[in-house]
Amino acid sequence: MRDYYGYAYPETGEIIINSKLKGKALLGTYIHEIMHILYPGASERMIAIESNIMTKHLWEKGYRKVK
Question: What whole-number distance in Å separates Cα of residue 49 and Cα of residue 9?
Answer without folding.
Answer: 20
